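Sample intake sheet
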Amino acid sequence: MGTPDQSRATGSTLSASVKSKELYKEMSSYATALPGQDTLIACWRSLAKLSPGARVVKSTVAVAAVFPSWAPLNNAVMLPAADGALAAKAASQLTPVFADAGVDTWALWLSSRATDLDAPDEVQAVDGLTRDTTTLVMQKVLPHGLRRHAGVLRTSVAAATRAAGDEPVAVADLPEPDGLPGLDAWALVYDRFAVAGAWSFLHGTECGIYSLGTHPDWRRRGLARTLMEHVLADAQHRGARTATLQSTRMGQPLYESLGLEPVGRYEEWIFQ
């Protein structure tokens, strides 16, 4: 896809019909961006301020989150509508970027309008990459009257990540929030320990919700639901009109019960 300057430079040699086709192609590419993608990229930029050596890089066809000290965040999302050749081009552009940062494994996300995790892939092969998991993009219009919960506290992203994984955090050890605009980390406290966590990012009138998890010993007690209800309510009270997140198969029933609906998915391909 040419830049605006390139389009102006060659415009005198293009017929009106060709220019119309090029414009349609460009608009179609951008139309494939899934809900929440801009918020996701903005969140990556914010998180990069917390992690040594991290940065967000934009190529001609993708945006990459490069996090040398935070392996799960080493991902890239395709910008235009993807096919195998374009995805391979993105991989060739991004591989040296990740390598220069000392990152050996990263994922390229291809957006799809499929709303079923079991639907066939739109891209069957990408040179140099291996097909991995699929996450469902889900969205909810936030109504008024959502309820916050007293047992959910703001904390740092690092502490919320620990609480969402395999390491409960004593309430007394929860640090203060990171203090970055739009970025909030959450911990749900149960019996004096933070045993569930997530973080959210408010971008305009949209809230992205990320990395929701509950310690294995405290699952199936409704804690993840309580945490989600609080995050959604807080976002609505601060002006968000919609919320988006990415769901695995395990999380989908919870999110659907909270009113989120599938709007697309990311088909993830791994470089390693």
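Comment: The first helix runs from residue 4 to 10. The domain at 152-240 is CATH 3.40.630.30 (Aminopeptidase).
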